[in-house]
Design brief:
This protein has 19 helices and no strands. The chain is mainly α. α6 packs parallel to α8 and α12 packs antiparallel against α13.
Length: about 375
């Protein structure tokens, strides 16, 4: 076993030398990638290598700006899938940006907008770094910042997906701004959406989800437990206590993260979604579980495939599952490389499921 590990380490080292040599002869973003790769290739364990990548990228700011680091990450993702889940690394970079120049937070939040999970994590991180710990449910404070917040989600958002993601970030902000007052945070989501004409219902739901998410999930930004945090024992009763059925339904959907270790089988997904009232609510629930699990497993989607295969022959759910995996990969890895990997994932299935999966990628690429 020891000899096998030594041999593997030697092979990886040789491959790394070749890759680093290639990268150093190319554009500046490849040179940044080479620095990151050189620092971390010695770690054979995936978790240790992930921590190394995140620490190294973080330490390269502000020597390199966020845009350069995102490009470097995208280049590195082609050689090592370990860095594909970059959402929370982007949170940390965002916090560093806000700390450097707090007054420009909204400008920074807009400037890096692209359809990728790195940049989505960056926009969320900007919002959290700016407003966490600054909560004040005073209506005067809320009224003062609301126009800027709403404008931020309109300005520079080239696609509905980007706009919806921004409203999700608003949900996080409203949670912090109201010191965890869920009813008030949800009301602020409604106020934000109701100021617009047209179909903003997905933006409304994404904003609700941004508020509820903080009840169920600790992020790397959480340096201490949130006093409002719920668990399996308390979540269902809390959701049922909400005043409107639409809030109850979204609260329960948002709690999927508490059950992620159980939701790897079809029967568990059905049990989780059984209390949804309407067909649309049920569809949203399955979509939330599929996308959530795909997001959680995106660096190793092979572990996601068995769940999808359990839905084979179950109407559209089979295709929805594969579509979720493909979209999360495309959004996380980003660019041409991410889209190629997503199409390969769609090709694991066939027929209507494959067609639906490919169509979702075509829609994404046109945004």
């Amino acid at each position: 076993m020891v000899r096998a590990r030594m041999l593997l380490a030697g092979i990886l080292a040789c491959v790394a030398v070749v890759l680093i040599t290639i990268l150093l002869t190319q554009a500046s973003r490849h040179q940044v990638s080479a620095k990151i790769l050189f620092s971390c290739v010695r770690f054979l364990n995936r978790e240790e290598r992930t921590h190394c990548y995140e620490r190294t990228v973080y330490d390269l700011y502000p020597m390199y700006n966020v845009h350069e680091l995102f490009l470097a990450i995208r280049t590195l993702q082609k050689y090592d899938m370990t860095l594909v889940p970059c959402h929370f690394l982007a949170h940390r970079l965002a916090a560093a940006v806000v700390a450097q120049d707090p007054a420009r937070w909204s400008e920074q939040m807009i400037s890096e907008e692209t359809n990728s999970m790195c940049s989505f994590g960056y926009t969320h991180g900007i919002a959290i770094a700016k407003f966490k710990g600054a909560g004040d449910s005073s209506e005067n404070i809320v009224a003062k910042v609301m126009p800027d917040l709403i404008e931020m989600c309109d300005k520079g958002r080239a696609s509905a997906r980007a706009r919806n993601n921004c409203f999700h970030g608003l949900g996080h902000i409203f949670y912090y701004l109201t010191n965890g007052d869920i009813a008030y945070g949800l009301a602020l989501c409604d106020q934000s959406v109701d100021r617009h004409s047209g179909d903003y219902e997905k933006s409304r739901i994404r904003c609700y989800a941004g508020v509820f998410m903080k009840l169920f999930f600790l992020t790397p930004d959480d340096d201490e437990p949130d006093p409002h945090l719920l668990d399996k024992r308390t979540a269902s009763a809390f959701c049922d206590s909400l005043r409107e059925i639409r809030f109850v339904q979204e609260c329960k959907r948002s709690s999927w993260i508490l059950y992620k270790d159980e939701l790897i089988h079809k029967e568990a997904v059905y049990r989780f979604c059984k209390d949804m009232v309407t067909t649309n609510d049920m569809d949203l629930c399955f979509a939330r579980v599929f996308r959530g699990l795909a997001w959680d497993m995106v660096g190793h989607l092979n572990t996601f495939v068995p769940l999808c295969e359990e839905f084979k022959g179950v109407g559209s759910r089979y295709g929805e599952c594969y579509t979720a995996g493909a979209l999360e990969y495309a959004l996380t890895a980003g660019g041409t490389y991410g889209m190629q990997g997503a199409r390969q994932f769609c090709n694991r299935t066939n027929g209507d499921a494959r067609n639906a999966c490919m169509q979702s990628l075509e829609t994404l690429s046109s945004e």
